[in-house]
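Re: the 71-residue chain
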Amino acid sequence: MASSSPSPSPAAAKPPSGPKWSLDLFRVILPLEAMKAFAAVSSPGAGTVTEICVKIGESVESKDLLVRLVK
């Protein structure tokens, strides 16, 4: 199913300065790219990202931890 929303920017993966990043429900946390197509990973609820566990350009699997989010 195609999404009508614009593709997220890779810059969306960079949190604001500081060690923690507060999020609202469904805020885009980071984009994933596969074969030049982007998919946005959104927060499942409000919380704080305490760690981004992947680096830009790193290959990931479906079981990989991408971010740590605490409520």
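The two ends are 31 Å apart (CA to CA).
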